[in-house]
Known about the structure:
InterPro entries: Homeodomain-like_sf, Myb_dom, Myb_TF_plants, SANT/Myb
Largest sheet: 2 strands, antiparallel
Keywords: DNA-binding, Nucleus, Repeat, Transcription, Transcription regulation
Protein name: MYB protein
Main location: nucleus
Subcellular location: Nucleus
Amino acid sequence: MGRSPCCKETKTDVKKGPWTPEEDRKLIEYVQLHGHRSWRSLPENAGLNRCGKSCRLRWNNYLRPGIKRGQFSDEEERQIVHLHSLLGNKWSKISSFLPGRTDNEIKNHWNTRLKKKLLRMGIDPVTHDQLPSLANLNALLMQAANLQMLQNLVQLMSTPNKVPLLPEPCSGINPHLIDLLPLNSLLEELLVTSPLDPIVSSYDMPISCSDTHQMVPEGNLEGTECLQRDSVAAAPWQGLNLAEQEFSWKDILE
DNA sequence: AATGTAGTCAACCGCTGGCGG
DNA sequence: TCCGCCAGCGGTTGACTACAT
Length: 254
């Protein structure tokens, strides 16, 4: 399936950019007299130094009779939003339901106005679902922060027992080696006292050594990798560089 | 008044699928 | 069935304008 050779490959001097009134006049006159059976040959026949594609676009979007210009009415906007929720970015399909409006115009209107309008109304312009409220967003952020703390802990616990503390001034704690054993219980306590979103908690976390089963999706206990103090955490937990995290031990312990 | 920034929209680019030889 | 041509489509660009600093 070969790609159509663009005008630039056949003619090097085709004009681009905005159309002049004179070009418009030539195009209108030609189409009214001969129709537009072949856009490819039209420019030459009409005496236009333009690409056939460019002529088709100009005709379809601006010169064709019956085109409605100007502000979209509330009713039109409602229709576009509704059709978009059903059809997605099928601008040509959507335009077929709005007489006089071109796909290009609808697409531009969507991208520049309607998307923002929907966002302001708390509606996701892609899925058309209600966006999470500010309060929900806050809770999600808290959960994300908790999760990140847990990740840090798990990362540390999956390395040898003794690890250096973060260098000053990240930590306000005496910067010597500490035993990570007590962190085990701290981690479990965190998991119990900080219930996570079901989506987050269904994440395949390599933690299930004791009674923290609430972290593991129901019926999925068997395959869950048990975190060993000497083992290396599974894929989602790898690649976390503690040095890049913004949490200090002080933060975690507090 | 000059400059920077954001918004708008006409036009272009490149891909896709239909069609005919 | 394969291949090339073509129109149509959706995403992107860039010129222009309005508004803010």
